[in-house]
Amino acid sequence: MRIWVDMSGPAHVLVLRPVIERLRARGDDVLVTSREYTQTQQLLALHGIESTQIGHHGGASRVRKLVRLIERTTSMTRFGRPRSFDLAIAHGSNDIAIASRLLGIPEANMHDYEFAMLQHHVGCRLATRVIFPESVPAERLRHFGVGPEKLRQFPGLKEEYYLADFEPDPGVPEALGIDPKRVVVVLRPPPDVSVYHRKSNPLFPEVLMRLGNADDVHAVVLPRTAEQRTFVRTLDLPSVILPERAVDAQSLIAHSDLVISAGGTMNREAVALGVPVYTTYGGRMGGVDEALIRGGLLRPLTNPGALELRKRDADGERTRRDPQLLVDLMLGTVGAR
Length: 337
Known about the structure:
Layout: E1 2-7, H1 10-25, E2 29-36, H2 40-46, E3 52-56, H3 62-80, E4 87-91, H4 94-103, E5 107-110, H5 117-126, E6 129-133, E7 151-154, H6 158-162, H7 172-175, E8 183-188, H8 203-212, E9 217-221, H9 226-235, E10 240-241, H10 249-254, E11 258-261, H11 264-272, E12 277-279, H12 287-294, E13 299-300, H13 324-336
Parallel strand pairs: 1-2, 1-4, 2-3, 4-5, 5-6, 6-7, 8-9, 8-11, 9-10, 11-12, 12-13
């Protein structure tokens, strides 16, 4: 089969890498498109995935997002029309959902957060098959036009699938100048440009100030945008490490003592790798995070003073799942058309 895979954000590179590998191993012709957005292009290069770059992110403005959606969808449709794709695959890309519907291509779209309302009213309605974790209640998806005939769900976290073959690089902390005697904390700022995360999140700067001035801590900050990078750099905090380019974040997490993130992917990567993690997410909590909090694997943080800063005694327990399950769910889309 000829299969079209779209990467519209940096996390999608990680999620879809093992899917692409398995599709190509069985002989499928896989073509990848991508969008210029934060570290997406750097991660594609880091993982050796060639792609055709189409379009840019619209930023924080809803109007610019709409303009970019129209522009990129038009370009995506132009890209897909002469290539006779049998299947399209994405994780949360509305652009390929629209283009695939216009071109009559069956499309499988993965998601793991059910309250991205504007995104789902487009992407979920237009997709042939919608794939979510089992921890997301199916009834929350019905008003997006997702019923039993369209919905497929998988056990666990998507991170447990794409990290199944992952082994941490022991050289990453040293390359970043991390002192292993200190408490190593990985910090991920809130997704300021995300439509579903419009509430102000003052907690992150407060946490950053506490950790950045602690002489027994090394806080590695992984900003999402150039503006966030500039903000962190201007604070000139003595215990903050600010990498200049995209790093092997999964190895960094695996060798850290604690993760604090306002977004979902890095939190769940920490859980999958057995690393303690706090969430500072300011939006509505989704089913995946609700389940992790109930299980004691994810801790909400509302006060920087509540942080428990200590070295980990040993590696945490990892859960590994076979990505072939996700591949099979996606390939089943062709028969579901």
